[in-house]
Amino acid sequence: MLAYALRRLLLALPLLLGITFVSFVVIHLAPGDPSELQSGDLSMQHSAQAYKQMREEYGLDKSLPVQYWNWLSRLVRLDFGRSFAPDGRPVLAKIGERLPITLLLNVVEMLIIVSLAVPIGVLSATRQYSTFDKITTMFVFIGFATPDFWLALLLMILFGVRLDWLPVSGLRSLNWEYLSFWRQQWDFLGHLALPILVATFGGLAGFSRYMRQSMLEVIRQDYIQSARAKGLAERVVVGKHALRNALLPIVTILGLSLPGLIGGSVIVEWIFAIPGMGQLMVQAAFERDYPVLMGNLVIVSTLTLTANLAADIAYSLVDPRIRVGRRRR
Amino acid sequence: MKRLRRLGVLIALVVVAAGCTGEAGGGAGERKTGAILPAYGDSLIEASIGNVSSLIPNITSDSASHEVGDLMYNGLVTLDRDLNVVGELAKSWKLAKDCLTLDFQLNPTVRWHDGKPMTADDVVFTWETTVNPKTPSPYKSDFQDVERVEAAGPHDVRVVYKRPYAKALLSWALPILPRHLLESYVKAGKIKEAPQNWTAPVGTGPYRFKEMKSGEKIVVVANPEYFKGRPNISRVVYRIIPSQATIFLEVKAKGVDVAGLTALQYKRQTEYPAFEKAYNKYRYPGAGYTYFGFNLKDPRFADRRVRLAFAHAINKQGLLDGVVLGLGRPATGSFRPGTWADNPAVKGIPYDLKRAQTLLAEAGWKRSDGGLLEKDGKPFTFELLTNQGNDERKKIAEIIQASLRELGVTVEIRILEWAAFLKEHIKKRQFDAIVLGWGTGADPDQYVVWHSSQMGPDDLNHISYSNPEVDALLEAGRSSCHQAERVRFYHRLHQVLADDQPVIFLYWRDALPVVSNRIFGIDPGPAGIKWNFTDWFVPKHLQRYTAG
User: Fold this and answer.
1) Which residues neighbour A54 within 8 Å (Cβ) at sequence distance 6 or greater?
2) Which of A89, A169, A172, A267 to mutate to test the interface with B (most CBs of B within 10 A)?
3) ipTM
């Protein structure tokens, strides 16, 4: 097992290298460069001289392979460099201050989605074509079809402007530092309510469908028939025998969405003025802020590779078929 | 001194109350009842779409950084309500007749936020910082004609120019930076790594830095030792909200006190009593104009008659009404209306399809049987480029397309992402025609836009315009530092550009801010509304944010 993990780990390194190289090239293929955008944003104050100076400062006057090599040699020393955006701050500092809020939002959202999607999926599978199933199906399609930004604006108008129950945007009230500790938490929660609601609505639809589908497949299996024939209560059949197996694909999907947790939802962050990763990345893309884009990419791809590795190892631990297969080799 | 300033506020109030009836509506009635006295306290919350990229405005050009920077720093001079240059850190100044020396006498009572006195040496340092090749300053060109800057005494600065420079005085509106905190960073070429750039800016301005949450907000608090007296509003929170729709909802929910609106929001979505009770709306000419420009290397557009014909074919007022609901003014040229360089005698080109057709016929373009305009068997077809993300420009392109169809000209619209648009098309001159805008500064010099020497790939004369008379006027205009002389050159330039139409000047859009009507003391003018910000106040009984 250990040897297997090590081998996989070694294989992951060249893969990571390949990912960064291809991304580096692709990112630089996009027309325009940061010095151009900063010095040439068409206000009359700027000059060709400022533009040239910036290119030199960023090392953009060198050839692409040289630029990649420089970036890579810094990276192995864990130096992600400084942002090309006008603030020129270290990439890790920029990502570091944005990551916590995105992570928080996405983890909470994921927990809510899973805890709602599983029961919804199970119920609509076991009562296929019942009224409950039909209502949830309809709800799910509405969820799929509703654009995030539109739903967000409607909710902001309703709860923020008309009813005045919740804040419209942001993370904290402006008098936050003068509130008591518990009032601060309550205030923070109020600010997160709408973004989480919007983000959950879309995700819930997908997940509950997966759950329903997976459950439907399992309850048609022979062993479920035998469990029923054995005279087990329906609750035990569904809750114990069927659910466990039906959850397997869901776990896979969850594992794959792990890297997405740090990606952030661009639209939700944009509309609700939440300074998270999604906003940072979109801005970096528009500004051609290569170090920030690459920094994020390295983190996400490392996470993806690790998650894949962890998932494979977990499978081999959990699923006897995979384990047996390995031993035979 | 202080009493005088108060008096200024009261006079300003009268002006506002008088001006309220038209635009500002709701609050007017309240204001006339009882004496409204200036008071200290309360917070003001402002929203902005753009991120702040630096707390040292000298090294950035984005407007958000400058708005925040204006609260924390001062220049030697500044602009008043009517865009006249007035002293700020400088008590007085003297510009030699030959425009080659400029002497400033500084206000000796000014102190940095950390308590150290501000001296002539800091002014010298600010200049050294700006021209230091390692400093990424976008304002270097303002100082390329400076031979030296020296401290003639603790509060006397002498600037010596190599040749007369028109913007000499105005360029000293540059925020002055503290030598004792920044020198080591500037020398090492690492000004962006200084704590003053991100976590602890120190200036001389009316507000002191309190905190910044990246991408979320910046908080500044009143500086009680400000040399012009403590500002009235005790805290300013600058919130960053990237979506214009969200800003508008925050305004409706009264979560934001000052914000700019879009034309649609201003005209159609805020005309209800509850809104008008809570906010005053303002409207003044903005600093930018939008134009329809041509690649003048293309022989079709190099012909002045074609450009004039197009100008006659576009109904500017109709375009203005359609694109920004009439909240702007048709442009006759590139000088901000109402400023001294603007020549009010220049007339716009009237909407006149007959005249347009005659001009095109003179230029050799004939209508074919199919109704298309042709010359030597080739139809008149071109591509009109503009950038993505600007709804106004997209609409303008569509209106131009429809207008020119009347003449038999086929226009294809193409909308591109900004970076690609700049790099692949503007810089490489790979375009037929464009819809774009120019922002204008406080000085009317437009050498870099129109002069024939500015056609290089990184220069700003994208349209490749070359006109000897224009070149001469631009050179004359920028080599004098006396406004009385410069006026002549710029008035003439305005006329020449209007006759030649190197681009079709479309309109100046209005700035459309709303301000919570608990805030008093606002006196909108050509300089906008923020120029007297330190005089704004909230009367005691209307103060909302009392904590802190």
Assistant:
1) A34, A35, A38, A39, A60, B136
2) A169
3) 0.83
